[in-house]
Amino acid sequence: MSRITTVIFDMFNTLVKYGETSWMASFHRIVQEQDLRTGVSKLREAWSSGDQAFREKRASVSFPFQTYYDAWLGSFARTCAVLELNGNPADAMRIVLEGMGQRPIHSDTLQALKILQGQHRNAVLSIADDRFLYPVIERLGIPFEAVLSSEQARCYKPRPELFHNLLKRLDVTALEAVYVGDRQYEDVQGAREAGMRAIWLNRDGVALDPNLPEPDHQIESLLAIPGLVNHQE
């Protein structure tokens, strides 16, 4: 098997946190700044139903592509209508995007990336809009050879063409690259269907889904990656 020359990373929940604490902080700001007469949890729950509907169909080839901005903006508009709130969806999105761009960096991220530098080519492939992905890239302060978002590619994981797009940009074969991500469906399945090897970053010990492709490796910390790829032939 070909030697791994390139390590491609997912961003949110892999290199930086994505979790509920940050989301609730953004929704708290929305309620406060817009003086909305509703609870933070109620607003979050109502908005999340629209977000979940978008997530369930976004990867379908029959579903017209939407950016996160457009999908989330529409969800805010519907939420305000359902809850009878005099909210401003565009201002709500401003707060959400600011929060996304400031997601906390995982404690193992910078050390792992610095170890890999000089040994392997590093890139980022993220289902994200550029307007909140690139602020995070800038905060990391690590040079990546390529960055590809779902907004640029106009499709979402696990569709293999998203991965093929980045491989073409990097001018590497699928067998030379490994993809690192935190989800078995979007990340492991997407990479495997594109012909790549896959490392599942399973920080929380989630059970393996037998109905989905298995990763080549399962790890709990990004610091395990250098040892894996340096000995991979």
Element string (H = helix, E = strand): EHHHHHEHEHHEHEEH
Q: Would you report the number of β strands?
A: 6
Q: Helices and strands: which structural class?
A: alpha/beta
Q: What would you report as the Rg, rounded to the nearest angstrom?
A: 18 Å
The overall number of domains is 2
**What fraction strand?**
5-15%
Using the 3D structure, state the CATH architecture of the largest domain. Answer: 3-Layer(aba) Sandwich
* Whole-number mean pLDDT: 96
Biggest sheet: strands, sense, closure? 6 strands, parallel
Strand order of the largest sheet: 3-2-1-4-5-6
Q: State the end-to-end CA separation.
A: 6 Å
Number of helices: 10
Percent helix among the residues?
Answer: 40-55%
Report on the architecture of this protein:
There is one protein chain. The protein is of the alpha/beta class. Helices cover 48% and strands 12% of the residues. It folds into two domains: 6-17 and 103-230, Rossmann fold, CATH 3.40.50.1000; 20-101, DNA polymerase, domain 1 (Orthogonal Bundle), CATH 1.10.150. It has helices at 20-34, 40-57, 68-82, 89-101, 109-116, 130-140, 150-153, 160-170, 184-193, 225-230; strands at 6-9, 121-126, 146-149, 177-181, 197-201, 217-219. Strands 3-2-1-4-5-6 form a six-stranded parallel beta sheet. Helix 4 packs parallel to helix 6 (130-140). The protein is globular and about 60 Å long. The model has no long low-confidence stretch (mean pLDDT 96).
